[in-house]
Write a structure and sequence with these properties.
The chain is built from ten helices and no strands. The protein is mostly helical. It has a single domain (2-211), classed as Growth Hormone, Chain: A, CATH 1.20.1250. The radius of gyration is 18 Å and the shape is globular.
């Protein structure tokens, strides 16, 4: 039971901090400036629905991707750990990722910004895709896999609610409050990144030493 609870907590925390809905708010509010609340809500629904479908596709198709490109799970853990650490470091410094900070540049190029850049890659980006694939492979049974899928739905649901309330959140927290939350989530991401990196590196080193 403890193992299942720990896995569920790790899945939720990892997914939520990597998606970082608070980091999406500034771009979402910018892209929906001048829209009515109903129009903004439609954009939020389309963005989170797109992000959910893409994430589920990669979560269930992870093993197929591994087989095609001959990728090992441990290798993905190492690379994912590095990516997470860099993302967390930027968040800890109060910076948004490159894609988030340059979101305005997508307005003219994107025909439907609910799908891109909001749905992919801002909500469902490389980081959260990697963590979902790794955790699906780490899940030892159906119960753990079901908890991961449930966590994905819950996090996407929360992301949708946060986007719907984005204007109220900005008014309540202000810019300073939003930055504080971003830094806290950045610290959590960095801790998860270190754990993930060494979990992948340890078996790789053991294999190298065994060959020698």
């Amino acid at each position: 039971m403890d193992s299942i609870l720990q896995f569920a907590l790790l899945a939720f925390t990892s997914l939520f901090t990597m998606i970082n809905p608070m980091g999406v708010i500034p771009v979402f509010t910018t892209l929906t400036t001048g829209m009515t609340s109903k129009q903004a809500a439609a954009i939020a629904l389309k963005a989170t629905s797109t992000a959910l479908l893409v994430l589920l596709l990669f979560t269930f198709g992870g093993n197929f991707i591994f087989d095609i490109f001959n990728i090992s799970v441990n290798g993905l853990r190492v690379v994912g750990g590095i990516l997470f650490f860099l993302s967390g470091y930027d968040m800890l410094r109060g910076k948004l990722t490159r894609i988030k900070s340059e979101g305005e540049e997508f307005i003219e190029a994107a025909k439907d910004f609910a799908i891109t850049p909001l749905g992919v890659p801002m909500i469902t980006g490389p980081g959260v895709i990697t963590i979902s694939i790794v955790m699906m492979n780490d899940a030892p049974d159906i119960a753990h896999k079901s908890l991961l899928i449930a966590s994905i739905f819950i996090v996407m649901g929360l992301t949708h609610l946060i986007l719907l309330s984005s204007r109220k959140i900005i008014a309540f927290l202000g810019e300073s409050g939003n930055k504080v939350l971003t830094r806290i989530m950045g610290l959590i991401v960095m801790v998860i990144a270190v754990e993930l990196f060494f979990r992948g590196l340890k078996p790789i080193i053991q294999d190298i030493l065994a060959i020698k």
